[in-house]
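hey so i finaly got around to running the thing on DNA-binding protein from Streptomyces silvensis. pasting the sequence first so u can double check i didnt mess up the copy paste, my clipboard has been acting weird all day
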Amino acid sequence: MSTPDAPRSLAEALRACDDAAMVALLRARPDLLTPVPNDLTQLATRAGTRASVVRALERLDRFTQQVAEALAVAPEPATYGELLGLVAGDDEPDGVRDALDRALGTLRGQALVWGGDDRFRLVRTARELLAPTPQRPSPTGLGPTVGEAMAGMSPGRVQSLVTAAGLAATHDAVSAVEALTALFTDRKRMAALLDEAPPESVEVLSRLVWGPPYGQVTAEPAAHLRWLIDRGLLLPTAPGTVVLPREVALHLRGGRAHHVLEAVAPPVVAARDHRPQVVDNTAAGQAHMALATVEELLKDWDEGGPAVLRAGGLSVRDLKRTAVALDVPEPQAAFWVELAYSAGLLAADGEADERYAATPAYDTWQELPVAERWTRLATAWLAGTRTAGLVGGRDSKDRTLSALGPGLDRSAAPEVRTRVLGLLAELPGGAAPDAESVQARLRWERPPGTGASDLRSRLAHWALEEAELLGVTGRGALSAHGRALLAEGLDQHSPSPGSGGAGTGAAGERAARLLAPLLPEPLDHVLLQADLTAVAPGPLRRPLADALAVLADIESKGGATVYRFTPGSVRRALDAGQSASDLHAFLTAHSRTPVPQPLSYLIDDVARKHGHLRIGAASAYVRCDDEGVLNEILADRRGEGLRLRRLAPTVLATPADPATLLEGLRSMGFAPSAESAEGDVLITRAHSHRTPPRTAPEPVPDGPPLPDATLLGAAVRAIRAGDLASTAPRKEAPTAAPGELPRTTAAETLATMQAAVLTGEALWIGYVNAEGAASQRVIAPVRVEGGFVTAYDHTADEVRTYPLHRVTGVAELADEPG
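ok and heres what it spat out for the 3d tokens, dont ask me to read them lol
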């Protein structure tokens, strides 16, 4: 029997909750909040819808799911003892009661279970999803009860089963089913019955006991099967199909609903231990490499990167080229490209011939301190939903997923990354986890759905790899600056990661402060070698690095970068407006070693020839004061494709454009320079192509956004006020059916309102707003004039004015609302 104050429905159970419990419910299940329910009855109805219940069940940990599954196969309502028996079985393990109490608290807090302390009820939709039926077993592997499996069986067949089981015949089928159920749930009598079973029959039961509980039989089953069927230990569900009743299976299982009880989360174990200082230094080195890689990528695309595919994204060929340019595997190239895009440093330019290029935010990002630049990237990675690991896979329409293309957003990615780092943070400093133990813990915390691809496991695998690439971890262990950054991922109010010069939050600042001392100081010098190379023993300051990149070609990268000087690289510097004396002065100022003589000769030799020939538009022409040089050009067979002809002793013309002519003569060993229409030498400078201002891509939310405390408090007040309006005792209007909005004529409505103004009483009204949405409210009228009523609205907890023509009717309250 239920106690007098036991709730009779989920809505009543919610009415008994305090505001803190209501806030916790709406925070755990934010889908219940959109739009804000009118009252607690509507909230309870919404909490029982299939989509909401499925979403809530999927977000439970494995043991809480097991408790819900056990409730689905328990009698309704279930006592604590019955539930404990299903969860723990005959041999109760240590700590199960505490774990069960926590799980019940979670289920009650999320409105999946309601009822008194010893009358637990699973919400109907959850029971329908988890309970076994004659056609489908439950997730526990249990089948239907004896009563469910025998529904529709002929009375004669029911009596024969009772007799074969050694029970006395009954006067009707209902009492026969009850007698058979009592036998199967009595441990002693059931054990005695099974002692009589042939060994082959026991073997059949052992194969069905943990599910699936269904089996196939022929029209003439073997003797050991016939023995089970005759006694109801196997019951027919369809022609040729039998099922093991739930009561029989529970006896064979020792009372447990699940084969393996997972009451405790599997621990994350350390695979290796390192000194924290080694971890931090390794992670800092990787962070430096991450910055250098992103800068190299954006510098490579500085004058306009690869074309955008018609369907969006980067072609496979361009991704391969990017991987070669960055000297990384293609999956890593996809990660760096996606990271730059997520941080707002890279976007499509939006031109007719659309290409990828750096954004204006890239220039702002370059001016930031090194550690803060890294924080921008790490924050963008932690919060972004773009998933580079999917590149090269297939979407639901069997189309290849391309880098920077559509279809790469996975809303669960930020939560998985944050949780993976959180698990690493639980280990001692310097401990690198065993990857499989991390996966096992994640699967326990959020079990994959039946038949679903385990996306979370793949996201966790990618998160561990990407954290190492980015320098959040070092040697697999979480670094000190990674621990500081983790708070940024937990702060839902942190600024957008790609917001140019905006801040990254207090956690990001702490991470930058911890990382800064570990990063190498930029140098202002190089070491010049006699073999026409320069060695940068560390990262260079930006002005020096930019100038050296024009004057020399990068030959190798690593701890030290090697630059090589060539005639082409020197000519590139001269084309950019530098003179030979400028280059000599630059090298002398920034080299810790004397400038080698071969390098000085190379610069002087290229400068002496530079600009000796002039290129213009004729379509194009060549002019030179030295007729011998022009004769040499005309005699060279390599210039036949240029179709040069002499216009004057010192001028040659060609139908080719100036750029083609310039490159052609350079390939023949000459060093021409371009000139303007006025005859001035054209200085060609590097052109940085930028997109229009672009914002970083917004992460795709995983369901409705999490409400803040202000919204939750306001929602709870609104729901309670609406519940007051719907449940307040009232004198029903004669024309209103129970539970419906009151219906009164305009004259009756006006008269009742005016009377309430004089008496100060509260009224119950039905109201339809401008959008046609109907609601019921409790108001205390203050003034009625001009077709409007001004009243204190108990539902909204404020004074409002309502048009009288939108009031459907009015009724007096039996008692003053509290």
